[in-house]
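Lab notebook, design round three. We kept the backbone fixed and only want residue identities now. Task for the bench partner: fill in a sequence for the structure below.
Input structure tokens:
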């Protein structure tokens, strides 16, 4: 595929009991599940950061378990988005970045800000939050130094290398179907998450230099799988996103056909019926996304063990 952005496809999380003996081979130690998943997918979402504050040690362990070239998308804390609803956001935002994300180093990908269904569009509150978001690791470290005493471990300010930080926002309230919201995202170069679900607005306006998509199950939330025809459609949509031809879908302000290549991050979140791994592998095959991680000795051993026990889900 010529003149296209980087395409990363993976799963939302990786620690799911029903996957053991299914996607994960029988007998695989839980501590090696991340390494196994990172052999097959070039990105994963970290869900634990959404539910509670982590420590630098956890981020370091995640970083060391995956091969070179792998990227984590990181979910921002629900304490900030769901409980505080962005009121007085600076202290919890500083705590979040001080708690260890910068320890991921070059494996730190986009930060996902997921908002609850009851959170309606509030342009003033959102813009105040957007202004605080760090755009690179230097800004994140500076913000992290303003943390308060709620950290669970000493802070981590990164390795000193300045890398960009991208942000994406997932909305679940109909009030966001507003051109003012789309323009606000574009002004601050924050990606609007394309969330496929039966419950929330499915919007595909391009608002940043990358596209972020989450497939939650279009027929039954978190459960239903994607048919071959549906995977074909999503594959074509990803191709268009990556080549700057976002002309197919639901838009607030209209399609984008600027020919600018964009990176695409797509994660399957239809986990309850074990559909996500097989669907992700199927989409990768359709797009020709080949993931052959270098320097992945442990992951290679896990893959060999998997082949000796079980065939991977069909695509």
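Proposed sequence:
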């Amino acid at each position: 595929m010529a003149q296209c952005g980087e395409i990363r496809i993976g799963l939302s999380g990786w620690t799911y009991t029903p996957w053991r003996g299914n996607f994960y081979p029988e007998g695989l130690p839980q501590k090696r599940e991340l390494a196994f998943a990172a052999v097959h997918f070039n990105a994963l979402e970290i869900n634990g950061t959404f539910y509670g504050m982590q420590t630098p040690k956890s981020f370091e362990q995640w970083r060391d378990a995956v091969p070179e070239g792998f990227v984590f998308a990181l979910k921002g804390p629900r304490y900030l988005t769901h409980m505080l609803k962005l009121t007085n956001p600076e202290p919890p935002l500083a705590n979040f970045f001080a708690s260890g994300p910068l320890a991921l180093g070059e494996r730190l990908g986009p930060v996902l800000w997921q908002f609850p269904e009851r959170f309606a569009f509030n342009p003033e509150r959102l813009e105040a939050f957007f202004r605080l978001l760090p755009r690179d690791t230097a800004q994140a470290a500076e913000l992290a130094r303003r943390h308060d005493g709620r950290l669970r471990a000493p802070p981590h300010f990164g390795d000193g290398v300045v890398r960009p930080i991208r942000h994406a926002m997932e909305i679940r309230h109909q009030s966001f179907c507003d051109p003012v919201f789309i323009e606000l995202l574009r002004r601050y170069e924050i990606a609007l998450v394309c969330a496929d679900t039966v419950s929330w607005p499915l919007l595909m306006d391009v608002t940043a230099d990358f596209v972020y998509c989450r497939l939650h199950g279009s027929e039954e939330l978190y459960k239903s799988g994607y048919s071959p025809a549906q995977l074909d459609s999503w594959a074509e949509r990803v191709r268009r996103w990556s080549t700057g031809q976002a002309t197919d879908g639901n838009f607030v302000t209209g399609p984008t056909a600027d020919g600018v290549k964009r990176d695409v991050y797509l994660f399957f979140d239809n986990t309850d019926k074990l559909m996500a791994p097989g669907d992700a592998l199927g989409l990768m095959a359709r797009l020709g996304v080949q993931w052959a991680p270098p320097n992945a000795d442990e992951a290679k051993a896990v893959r060999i063990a998997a082949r000796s026990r079980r065939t991977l889900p069909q695509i």
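Keep this in mind before ordering anything: The first strand starts at residue 7 and ends at 12.
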